[in-house]
């Protein structure tokens, strides 16, 4: 179980001034700028959960992960991973966790991959039996054997990421932290990585905490998501609840025959809703009329009828709001402000 | 304890393998470093040739030859720049990757350094050493260095190595505050080549300066083991210089632990 209690992290850096003059001024000034990267965040994660930790760039995701792994000490608050405080008992904590930072590697760059695994076996004190069993399992899900004897620096990004994931799992950690594990990977590799994470979670009940910008990762893996923005937690709950609460918009796109007839159409007025709940957009090149409306207030046939009253429609497409749209909305407006 | 040590052995053996993986650098290193030793050799020959004194700074011409090459063998073996690795780790944000493992960062660096020291001892250290002994006996007509002196030299070298890496670890911690330490590294190398006696034997300096140098850890890094090898210390003086080395190992170990604790408290990991 992971308990994060009112954790905060401030970064202090010297104040910088613009221009050459500023650079010189900076040499003599002692002013400091304090940036709150993480601001009073609390949550609890149960064993065996897969939690998506998402937020825009610079929201403080990685900083939180780093505090949970014991790399950074929090300025305020406390974090307990299976009742170990990572910043105070870093080595004890490290024995029980696996970490993958998508943009870095923990493997030995100049050596064959097999060597890295042998070192890790020693570092984590994995017995020969366990090592054999784990390697077999990891080989099955991550297919490491095809590049097991090649130096790490010659691996492709996809191979390296699989290798890194394998390395993080060699000692059967109770908690697995993944910081953007699918960054820069092609669709097939992404899919393999996701499958592997899922299998590991199911087989070993490994708790997984994952930060990502890839909505696909979240939809396929996470039962629960935590959204943070500017260091503050703005949403914590199930994926379904998020979709239900915020995914109320529906979009109907229609290709119309006589676009000129649409000029005087006031759809919102005709259907008796406010303009906010029924937005029209027209793409002149393709003669495409898109109507975005609140699905609780209007039905698709109502909208279609209203348009077909005016002109003939050649083609229709209906879209639910995707999770990506919801997340974008939250990043942009902080929609969840209302929910907190 | 043995289990704890076992964790770090792969770091040493891997560094050895890593060094061997780059063959070009391997031969170039031998060539370039030997080049420097021979420049020193010819310089000293010219100096001794132009003076009537039989010995300078307490060293005869023959002893100076041994000094120059033993300094070369010793310093290439014990002076491992781990601060370079620290700075590289800081710049690339790899410190984090070390902190997520249940290992001690300093111990892993020192183990790595040990791997490199073994490598440097094997090539070209030990060959130059043997070559020097043969030259000494056949050409210079000196006697072979006694087993006692060789053993004492090796013991002193081990402590020199620890002093060097422990000091360099403290120095490397600067990288956490300035990120990039290349300039300071160059300055340190230049200063150390003086203070350790690599460039000129410390006995050449005026008495007062020597006293100051005695108080610094640098004289214990290269000068002490080489002078032991030359048999310049005896009796209580020998115990004193070896004891002084041990004291420096302890001081620098404690200092490094304190600095590391402070650094990890205010650590900022770059990138990501």
Walkthrough of the structure:
With 340 residues, chain A is of the alpha/beta class. Chain A is 36% helix and 28% strand. Chain A folds into two domains: 45-244, Rossmann fold; 248-320, Alpha-Beta Plaits (2-Layer Sandwich). In chain A, α5 runs antiparallel to α6. The model of chain A is unreliable at 336-340 (pLDDT under 50). Chain B is an all-alpha fold and 272 residues long. In chain B, strands 1-2 form a two-stranded antiparallel ribbon. The radius of gyration of chain B is 20 Å and the shape is globular.
Give a topology summary.
The complex is a heterodimer of chains A (about 350) and B (about 270).
Chain A: E1 2-14, H1 19-28, E2 32-45, E3 50-54, H2 61-69, E4 76-81, H3 90-95, E5 97-101, H4 113-123, H5 128-142, H6 157-169, E6 175-179, H7 187-204, E7 207-211, H8 215-221, E8 224-229, E9 232-238, H9 239-246, E10 249-256, H10 267-271, E11 278-283, E12 288-294, H11 300-308, E13 313-320, H12 323-333
Helix pairs in contact in A: 5-6
Chain B: H1 2-21, H2 23-49, E1 55-56, E2 59-60, H3 61-78, H4 82-91, H5 95-99, H6 105-140, H7 147-172, H8 175-178, H9 182-195, H10 207-215, H11 223-229, H12 236-265
Antiparallel strand pairs in B: 1-2
Top keywords for this entry?
heterodimer, A: 340 residues, alpha/beta, Rossmann fold, six-stranded mixed beta sheet, 12 helices, 13 strands, globular, B: mainly alpha, two-stranded antiparallel ribbon, 2 strands
* SSE ordering of chain A: EHEEHEHEHHHEHEHEEHEHEEHEH
Give the largest chain-chain interface (CB within 8 Å). A-B, 32 and 30 residues
The overall pLDDT average of chain A reads: 85
Determine the fraction of residues in helical runs of chain B and give it as a percent range: over 70%
Tell me the strand percentage band of chain A: 25-35%
| Global Rg of chain A | 25 Å
Q: Uncertain runs of chain A with pLDDT below 50, 5 residues or more?
A: 336-340
